[in-house]
Design brief:
Keywords: Pyridoxal phosphate, Transferase. InterPro entries: Aminotrans_V_dom, Aminotrans_V_PyrdxlP_BS, Cys_dSase_SufS, PyrdxlP-dep_Trfase, PyrdxlP-dep_Trfase_major, PyrdxlP-dep_Trfase_small. Its EC number is 2.8.1.7. Catalyzes the removal of elemental sulfur and selenium atoms from L-cysteine, L-cystine, L-selenocysteine, and L-selenocystine to produce L-alanine. The protein is of the alpha/beta class. It has 2 domains: 137 residues, Aspartate Aminotransferase, domain 1 (Alpha-Beta Complex), CATH 3.90.1150; 256 residues, Type I PLP-dependent aspartate aminotransferase-like (Major domain) (Aspartate Aminotransferase, domain 2, 3-Layer(aba) Sandwich), CATH 3.40.640.10. It has 14 helices and 17 strands. Strand 7, helix 7 and strand 8 form a beta-alpha-beta unit. Bound molecules: pyridoxal-5'-phosphate. Pyridoxal-5'-phosphate binds next to helix 4.
Length: 406
């Protein structure tokens, strides 16, 4: 049974008011709220368990280590990785992609190619540009059509023996568009030896993830967008690939032996986890996975899809409102503008006065904004705790903004 009030009761922050109105939190694509079960795990960690992991023989260190490794196995199951040591703790998607781009440096040469898409977040653009600068490789970008849909015939054209990396997101954060990654991965495997990187920042909170079935080489996501604390994230990499590539950061935890003559590296996953990790946060990420499992992935998807459909239908009834990617397959996000209202942030400010939190601006995706020839959009994004009444309030707020600004 899916009981929305019971779910909402697990998120204390949803009871607060903003500007004298009950909070309507629709900025989940930027970060989700955290259920009390996750907050309690954070609190319990610091009140009962805090110790550095993997080093100590004392009891607290062992307990903290066990809890963090248990969390790793929960995440392994969550994404269906073959081995728990393929699951690397990071501080988020940005760090994950930077890590991959860094460790691939030696694998690229001048005139090699990296394929990304027009729909990428800046954190799936800039690390590859930096890799291009280091190596002389070139970036190729799969274009979109006026619905925001990737034009995959360009991928066919671009793929060649020069292609060394294909990195795309599964779901676009700016528009919520669900990309056909199965097809992208199949085409890439068939026509190149490229490493395949999937940015799952916006898919892990909404979909069942199966990295084995997907057959990607890397899959990265952020904990804070899926009910876990800030500063948590995961890099999944295929065992053979991670074993063959060099480390990223050097330091404690990641060595087997260290002397001034030279150092040997630890095995996976520790080779990629130099330094003291965010132990409490990593344990709480496991609790966030527990929360999602309790609610049920199918329930989460069904509810969020119903919210999106309802929101889009209501919003499109407003004259002069344009939804970007209206006709594309989407999840979790509706991104729009009002005709004649120059600046999305004006709408956002009026909504905020009504207690409604949305994001306005370019959403770290300036190329998409350039494509549509706009400075930004108003973006409402959904999580499992949002309600149809909240969407009614959003629609009412947008109408009010239109009256005030039009
Ligand atoms: C949020 C986001 C990122 C960056 O994630 P951080 O948690 O800020 O590191 C990358 N890609 C997509 C699609 C995102 O939504």
């Amino acid at each position: 049974m899916f009981d929305i009030q019971e779910i909402r009761s697990q998120f204390s922050i949803l009871d607060r008011e903003v500007n004298g109105k009950p909070l309507v939190y629709l900025d989940n694509a930027a970060t989700s709220q955290k259920p009390n079960s996750v907050l309690e795990v954070c609190h319990a960690y610091y009140t009962e368990l805090n110790a550095n992991v993997h080093r100590g023989i004392h009891t607290l260190s062992q307990l903290a280590t066990e809890e963090m490794e248990l969390s790793r196995r929960k995440i392994q199951k969550f994404i269906n990785a073959e081995h728990d040591f393929e699951v690397i703790f990071t501080k988020g998607t940005t760090e994950g992609i930077n890590l991959i781009a860094y460790i691939l440096t030696q694998k690229l040469q001048k005139d090699d190619e990296i394929i990304i898409s027009y729909l990428e977040h800046h954190s799936n653009i800039v690390p590859w540009q930096m890799l291009c600068e280091r190596t002389g490789a070139r970036l190729r970008v799969i274009p979109i059509d006026e619905n925001g849909v990737l034009q995959l015939d360009y991928l066919d054209q671009y793929l060649s023996e020069k292609t060394k990396v294909v990195s795309v997101n599964q779901v676009s954060n700016a528009l919520g568009i669900v990309n056909p990654i199965e097809e992208i991965i199949a085409k890439t495997r068939k026509n190149s030896d490229a490493y395949i990187v999937i940015d799952g920042a916006q898919s892990a909170p909404h979909f069942d993830i199966d990295v084995q079935k997907m057959d990607c080489d890397f899959f990265v996501f952020s904990g804070h967008k899926m009910y876990a604390p800030m500063g948590t994230g995961i890099l999944y990499g295929k065992c053979e690939i991670l074993e063959a590539l060099p480390p990223f950061h050097g330091g404690g935890e990641m060595i087997a032996t260290c002397s001034f003559e030279g150092t040997t590296y630890a095995g996976l996953p520790f080779k990629y986890e130099a330094g003291t990790p965010n132990v409490g946060g990593n344990i709480a990420l496991g609790a966030a996975v527990d929360f999602m499992n309790r609610v049920g992935h199918e329930n989460i998807q069904n509810h969020e899809n119903a919210l999106l459909e309802y929101a889009q239908r209501q919003l499109l009834e407003i004259e002069g409102l344009k939804v970007y990617g209206e006709k594309a397959k989407r999840t979790g996000v509706v991104s729009f503008n009002l005709e004649g209202v120059g600046i999305a942030s004006d709408v956002g400010m009026i909504l905020d006065k009504m207690g409604i939190a949305v994001r306005t601006g370019h959403h770290c995706t300036q190329p998409i904004m350039s494509f549509f020839n706009i400075a930004g959009t108003v973006r409402a994004s959904f999580a499992v705790y949002n309600t149809f009444e909240e969407i009614d309030r959003l629609v009412e707020g947008v109408k009010k903004a239109q009256r005030m600004l039009g």
